[in-house]
Amino acid sequence: MNTKPNENVPSNAVGFIGLGNMGHAMARNLLAARLPVKIWNRTAAKGDDLVATGAVRASGIADMAGCDIVITMVSDDAALCQTLFGGGLLDAMKPGAVHVSMSTISVALAEQLSKEHERRGVALVCAPVMGRPDAAVAAKLFILAAGADAAIDRCQPMFDAMGQRTFRLGVEPKSAVVVKLSVNFLIAALIESLSEASVLVTKHGVSMHTLVDLLTSTLFSAPVYKTYGAIVADQRYRPAGFPTPLGLKDMSLVLDAARGANAPMPLGSLIRDHLIAAMALGYADADWSSLGAVVAHNAGIR
Amino acid sequence: MNTKPNENVPSNAVGFIGLGNMGHAMARNLLAARLPVKIWNRTAAKGDDLVATGAVRASGIADMAGCDIVITMVSDDAALCQTLFGGGLLDAMKPGAVHVSMSTISVALAEQLSKEHERRGVALVCAPVMGRPDAAVAAKLFILAAGADAAIDRCQPMFDAMGQRTFRLGVEPKSAVVVKLSVNFLIAALIESLSEASVLVTKHGVSMHTLVDLLTSTLFSAPVYKTYGAIVADQRYRPAGFPTPLGLKDMSLVLDAARGANAPMPLGSLIRDHLIAAMALGYADADWSSLGAVVAHNAGIR
Amino acid sequence: MNTKPNENVPSNAVGFIGLGNMGHAMARNLLAARLPVKIWNRTAAKGDDLVATGAVRASGIADMAGCDIVITMVSDDAALCQTLFGGGLLDAMKPGAVHVSMSTISVALAEQLSKEHERRGVALVCAPVMGRPDAAVAAKLFILAAGADAAIDRCQPMFDAMGQRTFRLGVEPKSAVVVKLSVNFLIAALIESLSEASVLVTKHGVSMHTLVDLLTSTLFSAPVYKTYGAIVADQRYRPAGFPTPLGLKDMSLVLDAARGANAPMPLGSLIRDHLIAAMALGYADADWSSLGAVVAHNAGIR
Amino acid sequence: MNTKPNENVPSNAVGFIGLGNMGHAMARNLLAARLPVKIWNRTAAKGDDLVATGAVRASGIADMAGCDIVITMVSDDAALCQTLFGGGLLDAMKPGAVHVSMSTISVALAEQLSKEHERRGVALVCAPVMGRPDAAVAAKLFILAAGADAAIDRCQPMFDAMGQRTFRLGVEPKSAVVVKLSVNFLIAALIESLSEASVLVTKHGVSMHTLVDLLTSTLFSAPVYKTYGAIVADQRYRPAGFPTPLGLKDMSLVLDAARGANAPMPLGSLIRDHLIAAMALGYADADWSSLGAVVAHNAGIR
């Protein structure tokens, strides 16, 4: 990897804010693609190795002012609002610049930001991702992007550096958020359904592995059934790929978005209740597939 | 196809009772494989074409007495009990013969029959199938078989004639029924989850087709998501591939089996409630994916 | 109590079949009201003390042939069918006689019996009761009666001897069953709601007793809130006033009746699922208010 | 009523902020009890008649600075935060003064305010009320109060002027909020259960009035069953005593409080889903008992 590429930081560096597990790997892949990157993170040390491989460290959030594109990959609505408003990012960005929000945020916030950005002439692209940290490291993320076509076009080289494929989901930025939340809902629904099927077959003397083999050999031959089928069959809820509290956060975002649109989602409610039970039953540190533990518990299986 | 192969009915003809949509196609495939077949159906005319291609018509249920293997493919528990006990099949069968029950029946009945058959020295193989009538015609069924290994071995040539693959699910006959019901439950759960995701994205301005394309291009690349994703996206609930009342019947069998094992299945209950609503809202003649119509209704979408 | 009143059994004796906890107390109250009673029970010894106080023991179910009115108070649908058809009661009864079914049976069976009785010229009165065994002993039952007015008129002296009040619910016998099941559903719903409120307040540091006192002092000043509020607040699920398996049986009858009418009852389903969980979690010998234990369990309270 | 009593406003006037339907009636009753009252409302005209009968109008929220006791009766969390922080009430109040929050707010806000008030030496009493506007007019509210005993003692004369009874629910202010939300949850649960019972009996040919008469004559002889039993039986959801959107708001507060304590409330979720459906089906202007309309709708009853 190049060691001293950015002594003169180009004015067109990509800003990147938020260097958690996901963000760090994503920023590293931007660098690996020889894109100039300017980073900022609340805990600065998280970016040391990136600086060592060519990233420029911003002196503060407002120091992203010169960037044409600023990516945020922060933990939740509150962190994003703090970055944009508290930290002053939005007012610092120049008209015509693009803010790419890659976190999973609420639909309501995406709606609000559409207006705030438009008022300031800053383009908003919402681009949450599908994939766990290992997919981020391998640049194998699926990127779900929504916003003005021209704005997404400008982001495409970055998306190509971080992901295996970009899906364009419309011109309303919130569309990408809605789709991302729907995907997570569908995964959770699948885990819940496998969990209930598991207690049914197990209590009648059939191994869940037998059922999973059958499923993935026939109609349900999708990666997600293989992954979660094995987890549920083995009751292996640790280590956490996607921890229960994050799952609960996302299901709450799903239900908030649904309520905002007057759309009842009773299965969403059921999943949320089971995730709350998982928290109560000691699975706060486990994977959100601990839905299976809750279902087993209620069937008297420990 | 051979026209006059069975003038002398071999004593080892396969008995086949129940010539509905599924059963008729299955019996035809047995004949096509040059297996001797003796048929019986409440409405005799349903078998006329099979007789024309070589099947022997039994004079009554008890006339299956000489068959080494008798397959039943009738509509429900009541019809099977009527055949076995009212019609006298079970008492007529000779010790050492095999009864292959290919209907979707209740787990409780499978448990009861295990005892009744054992008492009479008749082997019971439960072998419900996955696949709709077109798969039955094409001999592409998946056959889920459970029972004594030796008994299944004897049925294997027939299964090969009717299906694309046989899964052996254990020595307890009820195991196949439990697995079959679980598969149907998982399909229904998938329809419900797609339906709820559909109202969420639709009400936020995203086409359900967009979501389905994304799903089937990524983690959910299974036939069942393609099939039902398209149905839900198009709200195309007619014609019925698997009618709402049959779906409701199967979900009731799922919940009965779960209750019998003290296993709560709240998602199963939710699906059953929605299928009942589908009946009430005018979808009795539609496909069980009219779950999607119920979910849409409750979101004010008509 | 009179000791030798019935030496000559009058032909118009009231037949009484089923001497469990409830039935025994009810038959005793008929005798106490100086009504001639002819009894039968599968376990004859249960009626010995009644014979000692004047009841006549029938030699068999068919020996009720001469009675103008026969009351059945048996455990469930199967027992009632066994009595009526297996035991031959219905064919033995004379045209114009009245069969009073006081058990909680399924609505479907009530519908079927309406036809069977009518065909034989026997009047059917369904008259399930509200009240636990102590209310039966004290002749304080509420009697929910439905059937032809003239038939109920003939039963009124018996009802007056067994209960504190009779509610006439229509001429269709099943109406009384539907109402009885609805009442039990409403009680279960109330227990579930109190159980959920209990974990909410308890986890936020408020005693459930405080909430119950408030409720029963204001809008919810009904006996049923006092009774179950205290049970839930104390988590005192034993001894069983109405055992979990009977509660589960009744909720299943509710859901069967609802399905029969294409009426989804999602709260009914939720309660049934929680009762199944109660069975799985070790409350089969406890009161059906162990719904509260299930709710507490899922909140991590043991 | 006295016409010119407060020419010299006493320094100990009670501050009252929020003159909606409820607040206006409550402030009027304070005046009727000859308590000195200083009012403020966003729309000043709402207080004109109160000024005419002796209330003093504050020049702004901060003008409540001199009051020993300030009551807030505003619409929701946002309005209360705006009053306390945006409007500067909390910083304006003198140490030792009492803020009485009578709105139904979130448990999380009550927890946060406990800390904010304590830091400033202002006592916080949460005192939400039970009762509709007509009860507020008649001074027949039930007042649910929690906070330091000495602080509640100082409020007691005001509570006596506004309500028929005060319940003291502990020293943690949030306790009153938790109890108030629980009461509303229990009322909603009761409406849901009556609605489901209603479709069951109606579809089987029994009038819901018949069931309600039975209930309120026996175990369920509480005002709340009479009120809502009649509404559900008549399907009379307008005019709105407590509108659907407010019911939905409160059920969301219930579920937020439950989630905050890791307590699943599946019946709470079911009710919330049905209220969302009521919004979607056109009952936004109706009473929250339009839960009954949703249940009927799903049973095919229009």
Q: Would you write up a description of this structure?
A:
4 copies of one chain form a homotetramer. Chain A is built from 13 helices and 9 strands. Chain A has helices at residues 21-32, 48-52, 77-86, 89-92, 107-120, 133-137, 149-162, 174-203, 208-217, 223-234, 244-260, 266-280, 291-298; strands spanning 14-17, 37-40, 56-57, 69-72, 98-101, 123-126, 129-130, 141-145, 163-168. In chain A, the strands form 2 sheets. A 6-stranded parallel β-sheet of chain A has the order 3-2-1-4-5-6, sandwiched between helices. In chain A, strands 7-8-9 form a 3-stranded mixed β-sheet. In chain A, helix 8 crosses helix 10. Chain A is elongated and about 65 Å long. The first copy, chain A, starts with 13 loop residues before the first strand and ends with a helix. The model of chain A is unreliable at 1-8 (pLDDT under 50). Chains in contact: A-B, A-C, A-D, B-C, B-D, C-D.
Rg result of chain A? 21 Å
Arithmetic mean pLDDT of chain A: 95
Helix/strand-derived class of chain A? alpha/beta
CATH-level-4 superfamily name of the largest domain in chain A:
NAD(P)-binding Rossmann-like Domain
Largest sheet of chain A: 6 strands, parallel
Termini separation of chain A: 50 Å
Sequence of strands across the biggest β-sheet of chain A: 3-2-1-4-5-6
Q: What is the count of β-strands of chain A?
A: 9
Domain module count of chain A: 2
Tally of separate helices of chain A: 13
Helix content of chain A: 40-55%
CATH topology of the largest domain in chain A: Rossmann fold
CATH architecture label name of the largest domain in chain A: 3-Layer(aba) Sandwich
Largest interface, and how many residues on either side?
Answer: A-B, 62 and 62 residues
Sum up the overall morphology of chain A in one term. Answer: elongated
Proportion in β-strands of chain A: 5-15%
User: What oligomeric state do these chains adopt?
Assistant: homotetramer
CATH class (first level) name of the largest domain in chain A: Alpha Beta
Give the ordered list of helices and strands of chain A.
EHEHEEHHEHEEHEHEHHHHHH
Q: What ranges of chain A have pLDDT less than 50 throughout 5 or more consecutive residues?
A: 1-8
